Fold this sequence. Notes:
This protein has 192 residues and is an alpha/beta fold.
Amino acid sequence: MNMNYLLCGVGGQGTVLAAKVLAAAAIAKGEEVKTTETIGMAQRGGSVTSYVRTGHGIHSPIIPLGAADVIIGFEPGEVVRNIKYLKKGGTVVVSTKSVMPVTAALTNSTYNGDEMVEYIKKAAENVVIIDGEKLCNECGSDKVLNVILLGAAIKSGAVGITLEETKDALLKRLPAKLHDLNIKALELGMRG
Length: 192
């Protein structure tokens, strides 16, 4: 089954690692995978979008507009920026924790992630909202939001990859000292 995943956030949130985990889990199942990223000019705080396409007969890593099965949003404003990629009936999994965009910080603008979440609820049919900050605090680390969101995406049923397949791919990419923390994060994401 062909699947298109778009992961979006800001630099430093682990968007690229989450995309690599999804891709590795699909490869382990014998699927073809194409991936690419677009990364903004600012390393921390700049926009990061990762595209993961799995299945057979995929020729380009870029997801066409209106074709993403799932958008995993690490930051609500980034989901709003990328919502045009979501297909009708697709699923958005989004963290409520907002990160002020570099452009807003430079212009002394205000930014409210709650407004973005409300927009997403109206723009998408299937929305899973995760209190990423609360779950990261429960884990004891703000560096596991990416894994929490993967767990929530699996629980939503919209992802063609199982919890076990994700665990295997995750553990192969992380040093042993981070295994317990990340498994806890994945399970918290599944719990929502």
